[in-house]
């Protein structure tokens, strides 16, 4: 998958064993945020997964870990996913989803990601879609492309 923030192309890919040191660094950043806010609950610095646990998680296909490498190969963010399935019942329809279990962006990029998140939330809310971040992201992205096309005189 490709992201293009500010015109720069960034490739999101599945995590590999070579990414573990960077993932551990990012997990420590997340832990320190929690530790700073609630030192009575969270030890710091620490990570919720060991190197061995990450090696195992990376091998599990149905629960993928995606990473965003920077130009220098250093991992700038990750998403831990879990495949979930709800069986058909009198109450629910059958659905398979990919649940986001954990998400982190390097502390140097958090302002950018906060802005993207805010745009998704605001767009979904403005259109009466509640907290549908996928719809908000898609519509916000469409609006940006449409506005750029109009500015260029293409639409």
Alpha carbon gap, first and last residue:
27 Å
DSSP summary, beta strand count: 6
Large-scale geometry: globular
Tell me about the biggest sheet? Answer: 4 strands, antiparallel
Helix content: 40-55%
Mean pLDDT: 84
Q: Widest sheet: strand order?
A: 3-4-5-6
Quaternary state of this entry equals single chain
Helical region count? 4
Strand content: 15-25%
Radius of gyration, in angstroms, nearest whole number: 18 Å
The run of helices and strands is EEEHHEEEHH
Explained architecture:
With 155 residues, this protein is an alpha+beta fold. It is 41% helix and 22% strand. The chain contains 4 helices and 6 strands. The strands form 2 sheets. It has a 4-stranded antiparallel sheet with strand order 3-4-5-6. Strands 1-2 form a two-stranded antiparallel ribbon. The longest helix is centred in the last third of the chain and has 19 residues.
Brief account:
This protein is an alpha+beta fold and 155 residues long. It contains four helices and six strands.
How would the blueprint of this fold be written?
Blueprint: E1 2-3, E2 10-11, E3 13-14, H1 20-37, H2 51-59, E4 65-69, E5 75-86, E6 95-105, H3 110-126, H4 133-151
Antiparallel strand pairs: 1-2, 3-4, 4-5, 5-6
Task: Supply the key terms.
alpha+beta, 6 strands, four-stranded antiparallel sheet, two-stranded antiparallel ribbon, 41% helix, 155 residues
């Amino acid at each position: 998958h490709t992201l293009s923030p500010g015109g720069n192309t960034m490739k999101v890919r599945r995590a590999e064993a070579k990414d573990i040191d960077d993932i551990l660094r990012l997990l420590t950043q997340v832990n320190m945020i929690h530790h700073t806010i609630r030192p009575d609950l969270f030890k710091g610095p620490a990570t919720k997964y060991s190197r061995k646990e990450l090696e195992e998680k990376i091998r599990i296909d149905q629960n993928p870990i995606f990473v965003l490498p920077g130009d220098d190969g250093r991992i700038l963010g990750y998403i831990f996913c879990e495949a979930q399935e709800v069986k058909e019942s009198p109450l629910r329809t059958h659905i398979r989803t990919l649940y986001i279990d954990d998400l982190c962006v390097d502390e140097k990029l958090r302002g950018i990601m906060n802005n993207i998140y805010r745009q998704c939330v605001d767009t979904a809310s403005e259109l009466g879609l509640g907290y549908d971040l996928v719809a908000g992201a898609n519509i916000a992205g469409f609006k940006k492309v449409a506005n750029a096309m109009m500015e260029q005189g293409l639409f």
